[in-house]
Amino acid sequence: MSVETFEKDGLIYRKMIETDIPKVLAFVDIFLRKSWFVRRKYCFDHMNESWVVLDGEKLVGWIFIGGEKVEKTLYNLIIHPKYRGRNIGGTLIEKLKPKIIRSKTDQATGDPTEFYKKMGYEVTEMKQGRKKKINIMRKSESKSERPTDGDNV
């Protein structure tokens, strides 16, 4: 079985496979325990839309983009804090080109809105739920600059 993969700056970027699920579950539990959790079924159901970033065998990033190909939506992007500033998130966004970003602004790892703005997205809608604040962002027509100071997600 061939899995779409590429390497950049010594890291391996590839589509998620079933054996990645325990790593993703542990990763999310460690970094977003206070904000969010992932069920095994969620990972399994969305494996084809997810990518992982590995440093050897160590999981250092995960992204989930769902939705129709025309309106691909980024739901989750998590980069290990020690690996931030290396443009891992920017590389994933550039590769997968989401049309919409659904960004939780009050999560334990901070508000990623500025990072997405540097990637050329703008807030088009704000949702306030009982336990969450979410920005809906779309690619800005006026700019498509890339971050120069790495990623902050």
> What is the terminal separation in angstroms?
31 Å
Morphology call:
globular
**Radius of gyration over C-alpha positions, nearest whole angstrom:** 15 Å
* Counted beta strands: 8
Q: How is the main sheet built?
A: 8 strands, mixed
The averaged pLDDT comes out at: 81
Q: pLDDT under 50 segments (min length 5)?
A: 144-149
Residue fraction in strands: 25-35%
Q: What's the assembly state of these chains?
A: single chain
Overall SS class:
alpha+beta
In sequence order, what are the helices and strands, one letter per element?
EEHHEEEHEHEE
Main β-sheet, spatial strand arrangement: 1-2-3-4-5-6-8-7
Helical amount: 10-25%
Output the number of helix runs. Answer: 4
Short key terms for the protein model shown above:
33% strand, globular, 22% helix, 153 residues, alpha+beta, 8 strands
Describe the structure.
The chain has 153 residues and is an alpha+beta fold. The chain has helices at residues 21-32, 40-45, 88-96, 113-118, and strands at residues 5-8, 11-15, 50-55, 58-66, 73-79, 100-104, 121-128, 133-139. It has an 8-stranded mixed beta sheet. The longest helix is centred in the N-terminal third of the chain and has 12 residues, at 21-32.
How would you summarize what this structure contains?
It contains four helices and eight strands. With 153 residues, it is of the alpha+beta class.
